[in-house]
Design a protein that fits this description.
Radius of gyration: 37 Å
Largest sheet: 9 strands, antiparallel
Strand order of the largest sheet: 20-19-18-17-16-21-22-23-24
Number of strands: 24
Number of helices: 15
Number of domains: 3
Helix content: 40-55%
Shape: globular
Length: 741
């Protein structure tokens, strides 16, 4: 083949390649046009399908939500009637005590209390006996704030805070008045020592007072003072005062409050206000979301229409330019024309996916508002909880004592203000920094540093505490102290901490005597390792079983109450006294939280613990449906739930009406749009959301049972009483099984 033939062959190959590219380009452009048509057809079908499903929801889901609302209203009406009867019984008792349900009576009680002039041990005992039951009742009212109007809930909370503040003020003032007259109020063990020990309801109060003696002539060589060890057996606390404290005139108050009167004033205690739409029902949520999806789809279609209208106009303009110059090839115009044939509008994704993304961003913003920034040493009270009461150890100045005169006349110096004055003692200890990398210290240097540390430790007070047995210590507590000026709990002054797991004791040194708290992680039992809901085989109740990280808890819901059936793997006998006793759900939550067995995550818990966050309307509705079906079905957790996303709840389900013929568990996926049984199982190698064949459309779990369940299961559901349904529903809302398993 000569050069001319090669050139002709090359030109022929190039022309064939160009023709092939033109054919491929034309096919690609035709395919793009067909794809646009197919996508438009799919969008139209999806919109029509959404509209058809929404019509079904209007008929079925709306009725279901109305049924749920009617049961909730019945429960609230029952609670209100019960409260009215209790108000009447309180009125008939006529015992002179206010009824905390009536805000005016509680306000009058507070006013009279503030104006009173009696400040003694008997007065403190009376106030503790009267106030603590009132506070307990008000705590329940505040926990059920959604049962009252916003103004009522605010009034109850205001009275509760005022009672707590006044009780704390009374304790402080009574302590001052007791120290004002040591001879009358305290027990003298010698001319140098007097003590006081008394137990009130929810309070243990102790004083150790070294009475100041006349100043003696100093010795030529003063002996080194010995540290004084003070033991308070009623509180199970021992304090060793350092040598730097003058024990010859020291006054120590040791008190233990079973009620935490401090934490609530901290800025990290309160939960950020939840968005109001979190409590809307599933039907309202779907109506709102359907309207938003439809509106966004219409906007997108208008955007597409305008976009292709502009593209069509530009194509017509470019074609005119090319035809006007047929003898000159306009490569730029041809390339632009080719690009326009394939151009698509940008930023027009799935409308529902966009709305889901916006909801996730809103929740992330809420968690950001809940996640408080803390100072060095400060603990976040949304992450930790103070358990086992507050231990207050104060080093005080002894007030001037009365001088006895003739004719029963006493003369006393009254320094102002008339309140307890702390003795000056504050030592800031900082641990020595480790040696630089690569530096080896000699044994003499190490020994010298240890002696220096021991010398610094001798300046600190040593505190030894036997941990209370009514708290479940699943891990070492964090010892914190209350910093009154900043209203926070801090660990800055706690050093040399030691925890004995076998004896359940803690020991530490501190350079300042402030109120002491034992903080535990709120959600140390989360996320759940498993859960189970099934009918009680021996009665007409419902069993709820939850397996946490450390313990397994079982409840029995019967009528309007819940019982704690068992707790396994507990480290202390905490909560044993509450086994098989009837409580309301809110009361059960309070009891278990005080025992550091908190399996009731708040709405901000996802900021502190891993979980599978679920859309609030979907989660609440699903819990309500599970409560209705709890006597007919057995529900269990599924390992596929974590990765299912916020719009899907995956769990195992089977009928449990006939205990002799129980079937196998099947996976069910409950989303904001529908409930479907899945082909895959719990033991499948991978998860698939493909439903079983012949599955009809069911808007939610409740309507799924109405058409898919057996006649016995449907009969059990219709026979459910509102008390049991609402009790199970309330417990599931508190535990939040689907969001943390």
């Amino acid at each position: 083949m000569n050069k001319k033939e090669r050139d002709q062959w090359m030109e022929q190959q190039i022309e064939e390649w160009r023709q092939q590219k033109e054919i491929e380009k034309a096919a690609y452009i035709a395919g793009a046009k067909e794809r646009r048509k197919e996508e438009a057809r799919q969008r139209a079908e999806q919109l029509a399908n959404d509209n058809a499903e929404q019509e079904i929801r209007k008929d079925i889901l709306q009725k279901t939500c109305n049924l749920f609302h009617s049961f909730e209203k019945e429960k609230i009406l029952y609670a209100n009637n019960k409260q009215m009867k209790e108000e009447w019984q309180q009125y008939l008792r006529c015992d002179g005590l206010p009824d905390p349900r009536v805000v005016t009576q509680a306000a009058t009680y507070l006013h009279v209390w503030r104006e009173q002039q009696q400040w003694g041990g008997e007065e403190l005992a009376r106030r503790c006996e009267e106030t603590l039951p009132m506070l307990e009742m008000l705590e329940t009212f505040v926990a059920n704030a959604r049962h009252y109007s916003p103004q009522q809930a605010e009034n109850y909370n205001e009275i509760r805070l005022a009672l707590r503040e006044q009780l704390h003020h009374t304790i402080q003032h009574v302590s001052y008045m007791l120290l004002r007259d040591l001879e009358t109020n305290l027990t003298a063990h010698s001319i140098k020592l007097a003590t006081y020990e008394k137990e009130f309801k929810g309070l243990q109060l102790n004083f150790w007072v070294a009475i100041r003696m006349p100043t003696r002539k100093p010795k030529p060589v003063e002996t080194e003072p010995e540290p004084i060890e003070l033991s308070f057996p009623s509180m199970k606390v021992t304090v060793t005062l350092p040598k730097v404290v003058d024990a010859s005139c020291a006054c120590v108050r040791a008190a233990k409050y079973m009620l935490d009167l401090l934490s609530e004033s901290s800025r990290t205690y309160r939960l950020a206000e939840e968005p109001e739409d979190w409590y809307e029902d599933l039907y309202s949520f779907n109506v709102r979301e359907h309207e938003a999806v439809t509106a966004l789809s219409s906007e997108q279609e208008a955007t597409r229409k305008d976009f292709f209208k502009a593209v069509k106009a530009r194509v017509k303009e470019l074609e005119g330019i090319i035809k006007a110059n047929i003898y000159v090839r306009n490569k730029a115009a041809e390339e632009e024309l080719e690009e326009l044939s394939l151009k698509e509008p940008q930023g027009l994704g799935d409308p529902r996916a966009f709305i889901v993304q916006q909801n996730e961003l809103e929740f992330a913003d809420y968690l950001k508002r809940c996640n408080y920034r803390t100072r060095r040493g400060e603990i976040n009270l949304r992450k930790y909880r103070i358990c086992g009461g507050i231990i207050q150890i104060d080093l005080l100045e002894t007030p001037p004592q009365p001088k006895r005169m003739r004719d029963d006349i006493d003369i006393t110096t009254l320094p102002l203000p008339k309140r307890l004055q702390p003795m000056s003692y504050q030592v800031q200890y900082r641990a020595p920094s480790p040696p630089p990398p690569g530096v080896t210290r000699t044994p003499e240097e190490i020994e010298a540093e240890m002696r220096k540390i021991e010398a610094e430790y001798e300046k600190l007070a040593l505190v030894h505490i036997d941990l209370p047995q009514d708290v479940m210590w699943l891990e070492p507590p964090v010892v914190v102290q209350w910093q009154e000026s900043r209203r926070l709990w801090t660990t800055n002054y706690v050093n040399d901490f030691k925890y004995n797991e076998d004896k359940l004791t803690v020991q530490f040194r501190t350079g300042i005597l402030w109120p002491i708290g034992l903080a535990t992680l709120r959600y140390s039992n989360l996320p759940y390792q498993g859960w189970d809901i099934k009918p009680d085989p021996n009665g007409s109740g419902v069993i709820v079983l939850v397996t946490g990280v450390s313990v397994t808890i079982s409840w029995l819901c019967v009528g309007n109450y819940v019982k704690l059936r068992s707790i396994t793997n507990a480290t202390t006998p905490a909560l044993k006294e509450h086994l098989n006793k009837k409580y309301t759900v809110k009361k059960m939550v309070q009891i278990m939280r005080l025992a550091a067995c908190d399996v009731f995550p708040g709405s901000d818990a996802h900021a502190h613990v891993e979980g599978a966050r679920k859309q609030p309307a979907l989660e609440r509705h699903t819990y309500h449906a599970m409560a209705f079906l709890s006597r007919a079905y057995n529900f269990q957790w599924s390992r596929w739930n974590v990765g299912a996303g916020s719009r899907n709840i995956v769990m195992q389900i089977r009928e449990a009406v006939d205990k002799k013929r129980q079937g196998k568990f099947q996976l069910i996926n409950v989303s904001t749009q529908r409930a479907t049984l899945l082909k895959c199982t719990e033991v499948s190698t991978e998860y698939s959301a493909e439903p079983i064949l012949g599955m009809q459309f069911h808007p939610d779990l409740f309507t799924f049972n109405m058409s898919y369940g057996s006649s016995d299961a449907r009969r059990h559901t219709y026979n459910m009483k509102y008390k049991l349904v609402e009790t199970v529903f309330e417990l599931l809302q508190e535990v939040k099984l689907c969001s943390f398993s």
